């Protein structure tokens, strides 16, 4: 088996075009849904080599749009409301990140082009034109494509494609008066103000989870009601984390220790022999390596160990902030009394560690993200947060410590949000922590540039 046969993943550029062709074939019915298809047949239908189509199919499976086995059989799913809504929640989180990080790097030409696009979109909305929805999507994609965060840009592009692939069963965007987002976003672009762009994205989220979600629910034959909250998950009921898996510990240890040097390529057979693992045991470990940015498949099915930079660590940290903000807002209204006591203990620990500048402070800050992820009822969001946590911990050998000691502007509203079960206040707290994180990322990048004379973009 090749590495591609197990998973194409989000970091393998060779599989982007096959994935997009598969999405289009899934959307327009070129490939039949609900019946077993062979990868050879799929490759022939969409005009892509079999090895590459398997990578695209695996990414489709990760998006919840297909099921694939190791023998090359795939079943394409019909989009249901639950999977679409889970994708929408993750999209809103990652879009906020791409939009706010795009704003400071926009050129004058970008700003002019975006304002022209926004004006045309608003005009077509006022006319209730059929071109409004595609133009609105173009506005979203414009911001995504200009984010300097490569990881978020890629993830946002994939999930937006996923949402659009469902438009056979999901109505197109028809919130005709979307000026609350469009006009504020244009102002944010003109002023290069990331916080104003966050306000614009929140206005968009209100429309997406209000009138647009109501129209989607109606399309699925569901009654119109507030967006359903996922139930709280008991952390004890979750599958054990990867760190308790001996096979994972062996493979990750070999990469992190340098026994398998960064930048080297290996066949799956060579790795199976080296680790003494059967393929059914080894393949999930290679998939996990790729999920956290330490490996990628080559076009011929081998495994390349990556050599990430500090910019990759920063990108992962920003993605963690985005995922954790959404988890926190979802979970805060569902906290049990025991949860609130545990969170209060964690907040007090953070206060103590920040006051005395304890070196364990970094781990405790990350534990707040883990606390909410482990109670989040959306598997997609929970897993995204877990993967981002692992990337932050492992993607570079010596990640910088979090040394933003004065975080009471995060702790106090988080405490109050938990007491009041207030998701809006929880979001304000997350924004405060994100601003501290952005300062830490900027400091780390400057220090890296001073040390080595260059700065990764």
Describe this structure in words.
- The chain is mainly alpha-helical and 457 residues long.
- The chain has helices spanning 3-6, 16-28, 39-46, 50-62, 81-102, 108-126, 132-145, 150-165, 179-191, 194-219, 246-257, 268-275, 279-291, 310-331, 337-356, 361-373, 379-394, 408-420, 423-452, and strands at 36-38, 66-68, 73-76, 265-266, 295-297, 303-305.
- β2 and β3 (73-76) form a beta hairpin.
- The chain starts with a helix and ends in a 5-residue tail after the last helix.
Largest sheet: 3 strands, antiparallel
Q: Which structural class do the helices and strands define? A: mainly alpha
Q: What letter string, H or E per element, gives the SSE order?
A: HHEHHEEHHHHHHHEHHEEHHHHHH
Strands ordered across the widest β-sheet: 1-3-2
- What is the number of helices? 19
Question: What is the general shape?
Answer: globular
